[in-house]
Design goal:
Strand content: 25-35%
Largest sheet: 6 strands, antiparallel
Number of strands: 11
Shape: elongated
Radius of gyration: 22 Å
Strand order of the largest sheet: 2-1-11-10-7-8
Helix content: 25-40%
Distance between the termini: 68 Å
């Protein structure tokens, strides 16, 4: 009887291991295709859907400062994150006493952009909500860093 229980336990652990490997591979596959902009369709029409779409440019293309000392500044967005703060090596260098040296980062994930606070003293706000984790930034939604307000635009 103990031998049967031992064999069933081994088979159960082996099944769990394969389910875990399958879940990891599925997650990696979805992350790779999401980052490259390739959409996956159902298996019946997959060959046509595996090509990236070049018809329309979707998502944010610019970061625009709408309020603060740098109002009117426009930064073109690419694939690199945008570092915001008072540090000289920041992408958007602020001369704001309420901004930290490395205040916030706006980074791409697939076709969306996310803002995250980098441990600033006064916090980063998306619209009126304080940012505590990485949060998706919709187009035209104000992001406040100190006295500076920025928006993503297409």
């Amino acid at each position: 009887m103990q031998g049967l229980i031992l064999q069933l336990t081994r088979a159960g652990f082996l099944l769990l291991l394969w389910l875990f490997v399958w879940a990891v591979l599925r997650t990696l596959r979805s992350d790779i295709y999401a980052a490259s902009g390739i959409r996956l369709a159902p298996r019946s029409s997959r060959s046509a859907a595996m090509l990236p779409s070049f018809n329309k440019v979707k998502g944010a293309r610019y970061l625009v400062v709408t309020q603060g000392s740098l109002a009117g500044t426009r930064i073109s967005l690419g694939t690199q994150p945008v570092l915001i703060g008072r540090a000289d090596d920041s992408t958007l260098v602020l001369t704001d006493d309420y901004a930290s040296t490395r205040h916030a980062r706006i980074s791409p994930r697939g076709s969306d952009w996310y803002v995250e606070d980098l441990g600033s003293t006064n916090g980063t706000y998306l619209d009126r909500s304080k940012v505590t984790t990485a949060v998706r930034v919709p187009l035209g939604t104000p992001v406040r860093v100190g006295k500076t307000v920025i928006e993503l635009r297409s």
